[in-house]
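Database export, one record per block. Field names are fixed; values are copied verbatim from the stored entry.
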Amino acid sequence: MDSEKKVRTWLPLWIGIGIALGIFIGSKYGQFGRSGAGHGAGKIDAVLNYVRESYVDTVNMRQLVEDALPNIIRELDPHSEYISAADMKRVNEDLEGHFSGIGVSFYLLRDTIVVTSIVPGGPSEAAGIMPWDRIVMVNDTTVAGMKIQNEDVLKKLRGEKGSEVKLGIMRDHDSRLVEITVTRGDIPMSSVNAAYMLTDKIGFIKLGRNFGFNTFSEFISAISKLKSQGALAFMIDLRGNAGGSLDIVVAMVNEFLRKGDLIVYAEGRNFPRTDNYANGSGTCKEDDVIVLVDELSASASEIFAGAIQDHDRGLVIGRRTFGKGLVQSQRNFPDGSAVRLTVARYYTASGRSIQRSYEKGKYDEYEMDAINRYLEGDYINVDTASNNLTPYKTLGGRTVYGGDGIMPDVFVARDTSGINSYYNAVVNNRLDERYAMVYSDMYRDKLSSFATWQELYKHLRQQPLLLNLVSFADNNGIRRRPYYIQESGELLENTMYSYIARNFFGEEAFWAVYYKEDSLIKKGIELIEKGKTSREAVMNEEYRH
């Protein structure tokens, strides 16, 4: 190990675990003022100066600090973090809901970039790029057949707004290389993946992986669209949503609550209690509502679910959520990096802490909790964690539990039917997705002729897709296993139907097909149609966990 690497490895131990980061960064960047400077800051300065002045080899002090900071912050709690300048750009794109690029979705098919869809009104549409175009050159550099990865494609196609990228395009029935120059622009990142009617009266809204700055406007548009189609009840799917902006989730849940209803509050050692209330302007205050959650629903998702539950406003169904209820305050540095430091905890209206417990220094175990719960059977049996949780009362007097995420009102087990070793081998190698793309490309003239995804879906169900996939998987090293193929056949077919629908009708079609037999959605429809989700019905019935 070279000398500089030794220093980078051991410096975090020298400067101590759990030292107040604000003091340290204040001494280095001058952004936090002089208050709080003390013995710890002096020791850190002394160590760094000692290394700089006396170490036997020249040390890159900037890189040394970059390597040490994540380790120091990591020791505080599971969610405080130091974010490098490079990573901060990606984080901001997720929250801001846009990035600068050319406005296409693509798939790497046989080592070639294939355009699968065009962002309406985006730069590529204006330049004349079309679905199923093959991008074989970028800025006079060949990219086809070069074993390029998704990350490499993104780096080549994204760039500063207003900058140009020259693409070499190949199209069917044309042997010539078409050169098209695209001027990059702002490309929106949708955070509402789907909004469609489940029945004549029930509207369904699927949120993506986080709450970004554009999520509320997309959410309101989805509600308006569904109401115009006759929706009188809503199912909000927050499964897999890791959270995001507090202001956004407060605005969203405000649509369902009455004026003066407490949505969430935060409180910390040096963080005075801050309350967030509904202002009464919501458009769905009298509509029935169900919230779908799972073990990966976290942070803002849990605030949404907790507010609906605490005010007996609707039902939360699914499985116990992740349990992320720590408030981070962000400080930015001149080089574009930032630190997010936990300063408070979130509490629901009933006083429940959302945050699950963690033990200092054992954050790997904390991150493995979802897997451990799976191994312990929590996803197929009613979660036994409620036995160890503190009971609270909703505003209507129902019992709910706090301190370990949000316990659903109605538990629905994870559907494991059809999941076996053959299915896992196919899916983990993404062969179902790859074959769906091969099939889409091979029969795209026929498949693109359908007017709706429903017509396409009906056609696909009459095709031998499973047999074709099995042959495709066999050719890619996954041997045939007849019993397991029969057991997982419907599940594999459905995932292929979903991917193919996405290729021709977009993200909403994907979820509409993918969720056709979803157990949580079926349960939600049943509860709404039986009248179990109105405010009065929820308050009058004690749901067992």
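Remark 1: Confidence is low (pLDDT under 50) at residues 1-38.
Remark 2: The CA atoms of residues 1 and 527 lie 62 Å apart.
End of record.
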